[in-house]
Amino acid sequence: MKNIAIIGAGMTGLSLAYNLQEHNITIFDKSWRPGGRVSTRKHDHLLFDHGAHYISLNHNVSQLRGLLKQMNISKEVEINFLINFKENKISKKRIIIGNNGMNSIPNSIYNSLNIKSYFNSKIIKIIKNKNNLFNLYTEKDEYKNFNFVLICIPYIQAKELSSNILNISNNYEPIYDPIYTVMLSYEKNNNIEVDGGLNLNNNISFYMKQNIKFPKLKNENWVINMNSNYTSKNININYKDLENYVQKIFKKSFNIKQLPIFIKAHRWLYAQTKTSYNDLSKKSWINSSDNKVFLTGDWAIGKGLTDAWKAGLKLSHYIKILDI
């Protein structure tokens, strides 16, 4: 049994922890909870899946699909979906969602694992000690003697954290798309025919009603994504200006007669991978020369929740081949 540090409790980190749980796993995350961008936001009695929205039925990660079924932590639902607002053609779309919001998926997986964890703990330094093992440091604490360090945070942050250990080529830099998310709630039902859709206008790429995920909600809640081009061009926009802009578009698009009771913008700087590391290098992780430190994440092979899980699954298989 080896001591393995996993930095990042998103879906890649949880995939690694699940697939390597026969070892002594310690997981670190700067957030207060597992899941990373698979995030459910709560404000008083309001709930919003403002990170990952759903899992596609046609994803090709059989292990994750089996785990969701085995643990009974997700459900398949059918929604009214509008692919293009201008065309106004409503179609039926089947998706997989968490039983209690999308964050309930990683949270349930994490709770099923018997692993040591440190949340609200941002690792800022990794040092190889005199025993050829690794010590990890936060601003206040030191964690000693790890045989392996698996870094599963956004690429730019992972590269910076491992810069004293790995010499990473700049030829294979994955490219991220940033995305603004706006959470919107109305007191009364607006009787909108669709549950979600794409391309509301030139700047809004996605919108989804949250009541299909949280049936007990008394108010009508929506999550709206700005597209990456708009976000990049307005990366430092005043949030109030963005919120007012989105609210006006949504009001006009669906002929809404009431003002929202809650509106809140959030910026995902590393929302999704535009060009993956695998696209550029044909590899699914970055490793040190001694195969003791690894970097991976959704950025390594794709942009979705299932890509994040798959990245951890692929790396766990390789680590097992190393016969650790």
Overall description:
With 324 residues, the chain is an alpha/beta fold. It has a single domain (3-321), classed as FAD/NAD(P)-binding domain (3-Layer(bba) Sandwich). The chain contains nine helices and 19 strands. Strands 5-7-6-14-15-16-13-17 form an eight-stranded mixed β-sheet. The model has no long low-confidence stretch (mean pLDDT 96).
Offer a concise description of the structure.
The protein is an alpha/beta fold and about 325 residues long. It is about 25% helix and about 30% strand. An 8-stranded mixed beta sheet has the order 5-7-6-14-15-16-13-17.
Q: What's the number of extended β-strand segments?
A: 19
Main β sheet profile: 8 strands, mixed
The assigned CATH architecture is 3-Layer(bba) Sandwich
Strand order of the largest sheet: 5-7-6-14-15-16-13-17
How many distinct folded domains? 1
Summing up helix and strand content along with how strands pair, one would put the structural category as: alpha/beta
